[in-house]
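Quiz preparation item.
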């Protein structure tokens, strides 16, 4: 069963799913994209966030309904959009985004 678990600092973690790809960049100003695969349901979950040093990735995630859910193609599109708009990603990472997410999906769904 897939669920959200929180540690004592309130940081959320997706448990019971296969991690597909996580991208976290920056320092004081950061951006985050996390994605997971549910092999039983055959769906993907993802979450994107950005902020500053006063908060952290996924700190407002409490339930699975706080994540986006969809198909492989929807996840690919979401990650490409995230990369295109990312303030902290290097140009070379933006160019490689589609390849990287497709490769990560291939590995996660073996």
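Solution:
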């Amino acid at each position: 069963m897939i669920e959200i678990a929180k540690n004592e600092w309130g940081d959320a973690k997706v448990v019971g799913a296969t991690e597909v790809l996580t991208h976290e960049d920056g320092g004081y100003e950061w951006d985050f994209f996390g994605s997971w695969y549910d092999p039983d349901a055959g769906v993907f979950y993802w979450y994107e966030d950005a902020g500053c040093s006063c908060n952290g990735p996924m700190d407002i995630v409490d339930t699975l309904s706080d994540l986006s859910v969809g198909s492989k193609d929807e996840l690919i599109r979401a990650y490409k959009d995230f990369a295109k708009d990312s303030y902290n990603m290097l140009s070379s990472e933006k160019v490689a985004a589609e390849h990287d997410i497709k490769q990560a999906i291939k590995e996660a769904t073996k």
